[in-house]
Amino acid sequence: MAAVTDVEPRLTTLEDNRKMLAAFLRTRRESLDPQRLGLPRSGRRRTPGLRREEVALLADVGVTWYTWLEQGREVNPSVSVMTAIASALQCSPVETRHLFILAGLSPSEIPASAICENLSPASRRLLDALMPNPACMQTPNFDILGYNRNFCLLMGVDLDSVPAEERNCIYQYLTNETWRSRLGDKESLMPLFVGYFRAGMTENRGNPRWEALLEQFTRVSAEFKTLWQQRYEVKGIENHLKEFIHPQIGTVQMQQANWFSTPRDGARLLVYLPVDDAGERALAGLSQY
């Protein structure tokens, strides 16, 4: 009897997850506009949104198989199939994670391309409104989601011309001489970056993007690799004074201020603020260069 009791909760959880997965898929499908997805408008639709056949077509899966998934049957979808379905249903990173968990898959298996975050129009307006203060929006792994003009001018790099996968603060520091030359106190920066990334990596082991970044950092920088292998330090993001060295406005001390969208795994708004009148004047003139 004990064995039966031990098994029942797990089976119930699996069944509940399949039901919730089915409900989510159906709700998400019905919320989409076929015309906005470029699908032809043919015949009268009995329900709003996409048909099951259209989702199956977009995801390149069988109609019967997708129907079973939406009916809550036990079909055991693979990572590649759930990624395709999440893409077909225009799922956000949070929704994709939700789908994977309900399907019995590990969120760490979500491909980096499926979890790539985009900057919202509101966040873009916020970054522009913060001018002339240099500002950017970053993910916990230091990928740069968005930035304003003075951030690029301060760092000497036109991020619009940088491939999206290379828009990462640590990667730019390790590989871009101009970016690196703009930052003072270089002796402390590399240990800080290693400590920051190690702290985040602890919770994101197995995440494709985090793993790919770690491989890149250790490949392009022998110093980063040595520190990663020989020093076990973890650091948390803090607001602190930071020194910048700019060829036109000179050396400027600025206060780094961070705001997080959520307590954990949220995007981080980073703003550099002048600490004196000289800094105010320097930032005011930065946009001239």
Output the helix-strand order: HHHHHHHEEHHHHHHEEEH
Order of strands, main sheet, comes to 2-1-5-4-3
Overall helicity: 40-55%
Number of domains: 2
Structural class comes to: alpha+beta
Mean pLDDT: 85
Please count the beta strands (DSSP E, at least 2 residues each): 5
Q: What would a concise description of this structure say?
A:
This protein has helices at residues 2-30, 52-59, 63-70, 79-88, 93-102, 112-115, 121-129, 149-155, 169-175, 177-181, 186-204, 208-220, 222-230, 277-286, and strands at 135-138, 144-147, 241-246, 250-260, 268-274. It is of the alpha+beta class.
What does this structure look like?
This protein has helices at 2-30, 52-59, 63-70, 79-88, 93-102, 112-115, 121-129, 149-155, 169-175, 177-181, 186-204, 208-220, 222-230, 277-286; strands at 135-138, 144-147, 241-246, 250-260, 268-274. It is of the alpha+beta class. It folds into 2 domains: 2-115, lambda repressor-like DNA-binding domains (434 Repressor (Amino-terminal Domain), Orthogonal Bundle), CATH 1.10.260; 121-286, Beta-Lactamase, CATH 3.30.450.180. A hairpin with a 3-residue loop joins β3 (241-246) and β4 (250-260). Residues 1-5 have low confidence and may be disordered.
